[in-house]
Amino acid sequence: MGETELKDVSTEFQRRRTATWRGVRAWVGVLVAGFTVAVSIGDLGPGDPLTLWLPATAAFAAIMIAMFRIIRIGGRIYRCPSCDEVPMSWSGMLGPGAIGARKMVELNPDTCGSCGARLRVR
Ligand SMILES: [Zn+2]
Questions:
Q1: Which of 20, 36, 64, 117 has a 20 to 30 A CA-CA distance from 28?
Q2: For residue 102, how far is its CA from the centre of ligand 1 (angstroms)?
């Protein structure tokens, strides 16, 4: 693989990253709005009125739809130009109830976790 090809992969990846953000940003807005409503309503019990349950249910539905759309759009566009995989990395977790590692989608990776191609333009 020559130097030119390496540069092309990172340039193409940055283009896809921008395209992904353009595609999902409206849904990120919906997600943030849904969480804001859900947090401001707080915990609901059986005694709470329908006027609280309705916006809470709508906020929950909006969050689910937005997350689904973001995953769908991201999974389609946000891929490494070299190996066509979504760039992932392992992230360590340490908390009161959890210790371990999980796979996370890298939002601004230096290199692809699957094939090692350089994804960030220097
Ligand atoms: Zn790759």
A1: 117
A2: 19
Task: Give the distance (Å) from ligand 1 centre to CA of residue 13.
Answer: 10
DSSP class per residue in 67-111 = HHHHHHHHHHH---TTT----EEEEEEE-SS-EEEEEEE-SS-SB
Provide the whole-model pTM: 0.78
In this predicted model, what pLDDT tens digit does every residue of 64-113 receive, in sequence order? 999 999 999 999 999 999 999 999 887 777 777 767 777 888 889 999 98
19 CA distance to ligand 1 middle (Å): 18
Provide the residue ranges of all domains of the chain, joining segments of one domain with +: 3-81
Q: Which residues of 69-80 are buried (b: 16+ CB within 10 A; e: fewer)?
A: bbeebbeebbbb
